[in-house]
Design a protein that fits this description.
The chain is an all-alpha fold and 58 residues long. Helix content is 50%, strand content 0%.
Length: 58
């Protein structure tokens, strides 16, 4: 999911609510922020790999 928009429209509030729902249902969530000039795909792979190692049985 990619969420973008102007400042102050509620993106962070929505993401926090979605995270709470995902956590409640046992889903693994990660936080990833992408900026111009960064490869979002490459950054996502690094974050996911680190999160998997941190999980029990990872």
């Amino acid at each position: 999911m990619v969420l973008s928009g102007l400042r102050g429209v509620g993106k962070t509030v929505l993401l926090r609510r979605l995270k709470a729902l995902a956590d409640h249902h046992g889903w693994i969530t990660i936080k990833l922020e992408a900026r111009r000039g960064e490869s979002a795909q490459q950054e996502a792979r690094k974050v996911i790999a680190a999160e998997r190692k941190a999980q029990p049985g990872g």
